[in-house]
Amino acid sequence: MKQQSEKITALYCHLSQDDEREGERNSITTQKTILQNFAKNNGLRNAQYFIDDGYSGGGIIFE
Length: 63
What we know:
The chain is an alpha+beta fold. The chain is built from one helix and three strands.
């Protein structure tokens, strides 16, 4: 019998080159903290971060 894999909570952080002008408020670190708190406060488990740090065509980093 095939074992069912555990579901994940996908947390997506995005920082475009235009966002650099906005300062710390839009940093990846800040977005991760906000998303982590949201997931925790809403009972969402097994959080996996997907990060697009403004590198055009660079893809997504999985953490």
